[in-house]
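Q: Sequence in, structure out?
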Amino acid sequence: MNPHSDPKVKTNVILTVDACSYSNNMVELAVAIAASGKIHLHGLFIEDEDLLTVAELPFTREISLTTAQEQPTDTTRMQNSLRALGTQFKTALQRSAQAADVSWSYDYVRGRRDDIALTEERDVRYTILGRTSLHRAETIPRQRTHRILIVEDHSSLIGQILQVLLQRIHADPLEITWLQQGSDLSGQTRSLLEDLQHEHPRMMIHTHKLDDLESILSSRAHAFEYAILPQQTDKGIQQQVLDKLDCPVILVA
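A: Exactly. Output:
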């Protein structure tokens, strides 16, 4: 079902994944976010055209998992594998969404992952961009410090996202790196962080100016488990985060 062809369906959460970023954990995260707001979830599996372009080059080789022998890349076989993975993603989406009583839809498209993922859509509250990360694992290690990167957005939707993530983190230690766009935190932001610290006493918050983003990404890119950015963030900043981080990125309207 394509929600964009049905005016009655209002897509409020979009989950974009490709062959490198799909996992059941990503699906469960998206379903949890949709369920928390009782809103529609649309899953988008992207067949990465850059990957297929590389596969068509004459010097590209692949190694068989069964024989460990090197052989020329077969583009048709690769496409079939990607479509099979897309079907697997759709099945997992359906199963998880139905179990949580979340309305859902699905599309399979071909294109460049970030170009498609960053396309602005109307009536979308959250866009979840799957990345290549530990989220491919089916279990997330417990009793460790979880780290979230947040670019300030004066929106109550960030609070809703954090509530979902806190439920997934449970009582484990949590560090939030909060990048503020002004010299001081807004009253709404300060109130939100105080409430979260009250609910999650093992949470630490480090505030920085947005100008510090580049140095933070250079030194701690692989430390973050999630990143949350406003949908209206400068496209250059969005791309910088996507280029550096290998964790899921959540864009908030």
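The chain has two domains: 3-129, 140-252.
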